[in-house]
Amino acid sequence: MTNRADLHTLTGAYATDSLDDTERAQFEEHIGQCPACAQEVRELSATAARLGLAAAVVPRPALKEQVLRSIATVRQEAPRTEPGPPGGTVPRAPLRRASRWALAACLAAATAFGATAVWQHREAGDARDQAREVQQRTEELASLLAAPDARTRTANLAGGARATVVVSEGRDRAAFLATGMAEPPRGKVYQLWFNDKGTMRSAGLMDPGRTTSALVMKGRVGEATGMGVTVEPAGGSPEPTTKPVALLDFPA
Question: What topology in the membrane does the UniProt record assign (predicted)?
Fold first, then answer.
């Protein structure tokens, strides 16, 4: 059994879902009596959510072609002006090797910083819009997780996945966080639902390309007492068409 002194050190492990069932139960009992740990968990959970939502901006294939064309027309090194060796013999092999290394370095840099360069490209408007949308969702989720009245409930899902629902009564909003979920079948998507006392109400779609997800559920909590997840056709369904892969009651 974990002693009380040790429980204060488990905030990070709890926020990243790294505790076993026994430790989790002990810690959840502890944070109900320790406001400092409860606040730290909210802050760490918000940070973890930001990391989970981070989306890399992939440069367009045309960017690589543009870099390669530019390399062919831009001098890699300035002409050497220092005196040559006696006898007028200039060793050219080292210069050619240096030029090849410079070219390789340029290509490596272009690849490593392609995601940054795309922001400066004149056709990167879609990428900027996507980044703004991600930033807005991240801030909304972080704000909900840090709410003073935020309550959480975690459950094990099939295949070793874990899901956590976070509810703020004051904000009338809920968030869903999941790790290790299997990718849905091709042409399918995970759809979230509010459980309004037996009637399921759509609460948005999960990104089909992610096995880890953290998002604010669409719509108000209202009278909902729990939530569920089903596999639906791409674009979602007006009501569930399959057996739930997850059902969680909202924390009291």
Answer: Single-pass membrane protein
